[in-house]
Structures are given as C-alpha cells and as structure tokens.
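Weekly modeling sync, notes
Attendees: S.R. (lead), two postdocs, one rotation student

Agenda item 3: backlog of single-chain predictions. S.R. asked that every request posted to the team notebook include the full sequence so nobody has to chase files. The rotation student volunteered to paste the first one in as an example of the format we agreed on. Action items at the bottom.

Example entry:
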Amino acid sequence: MVSEEVDDVTWLKDSPERGDYLVYFDPLDGSSNLEVDLSVGSIFSIMEIENIENSKNVMRNGKDQICAGYAIYGPSTMLVLTMGDHVEGFTFCESDNTFYLTQPEISIAEDSTEFAINASRSRYWSEPIRRYVDECLLGKEGPRARNFNMRWTASMVAEVHRILIRGGVFMYPSDVENSVMGGKLRLLYEANPMSAIVEAAGGASSTGTQRILDLTPSDHHQRVPVILGSKNEVDRIVSYHKSSLNN
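Predicted structure, as returned to the notebook:
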C-alpha cells in the first residue's frame, strides 16, 4: 500500500507474488474542507504485480492501472469507478447499506464553459496558464467568444466529480513557486487515478507537456502538474504550452 499519509510503502506480505495487488490511495482528499462542511473524498488506484523478480517495485506507469476510483462524501455518498474502458457512478443508500448504479457510462463533454483553478496563485502562473485563464475571463468579448465560469473547492475529488457530471477543466499547474517540488499533486495516488477516470470518460489529462498516464515515476510521493477534463479545453492548454516552448 502506498498512501499520502505514510512516508514509507506498507507491505502486508514479506514476499509479494505475481497476482498480488498494489494499492495507492489518498484517504482524505480535500481535508481542509472538513471544518466548513464541504465535500471531501477518497482516491484509490490498483495495479497488479506482474514481475516477480521485481515484485516490490511500486514505481509503476499510470497505464498499468487495472482499476481506479474515488468516493465522494457530499449531500450523497458516491463511488465512481473505472476498470479502464468506461466510468460508472454508484450512490450509497443508507436504508439498506447498498451502493446502487445510478450513473452508468459517464461521459465528459468535449467542450465546456467552466474551469477550476486556484486564482490566488495567479502571480506564480506560467504564460500558457495565464493566457488560457485571461481568455476565459474576457468572455464573449474575448477570443473564445463565450462566457466562462470559474469554480474552486480545494478538493480534487469534488472538482473532478463536477467535471464528470457537467464538463469543465481542472488545473493545478506547475508554477514558479511549486516547480521546485515538481508541482502540487501526487502522481501515484492523485494524478494517475483521476487521469484514468477522466480519460475513460472521454476527457484528457496532461502536465501541460506530457500525458500524465505516460509518466514513469521517480518517487512514490512524486508531485506533478495536473490539467484534466474536457478534451478540447485540455488540448487548447497543451497547445499553449507547446507554443510557449517554441517561442
């Protein structure tokens, strides 16, 4: 088990075998929202041990995930799950202690008029992120020719859940303040599982320059930039990064 709350990897077996599982998880995402009674959640990712000669290797590529999901604790408790090819949402019914399939085949709209970013960090943003946000804020009078809404709840689970339901893009990019750490969010138990969910629902995920699920981890608490959500919006932000690199 690899957890945000524990520095070291926790092994439940002295000698893991082929077919055993690696579980990566963030037990309480958005914990700062607890005191104000906003939505929080739990994120998880599961991979299978395949190479017995290197069975304790937890630095696995996001494409190796066999399952990813999250629970969100809001007005209702939901479990959102992907096995790789589609995404389904299950709602918890307290009266019979059962999760029911309530949102089969979740699909993210390719276009959107919502974006989520921590605007208090705007003084640290790179030029591509600043360009994207500025264009959105210009609304109908700007180059996007339509009005956008900004959302921010300081909980990745809540942000991604909203995007699954009604589209949008979530950004916690690399900036001049957090770039020394590699970014803000953790690759193995935040960025990878959420990217798997978003891509299985038809969206896209990127660091701005690379597809997140293609990254090879260097540390089990590695941090990375995260941009994910509606495909056309993510593609636009990636194109701005490419344009910036070429100038």
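Discussion: group reviewed the output briefly. Residues 135 and 144 are 6 Å apart (CA to CA).
Action items: rotation student to repeat for the remaining queue; S.R. to check formatting next week.
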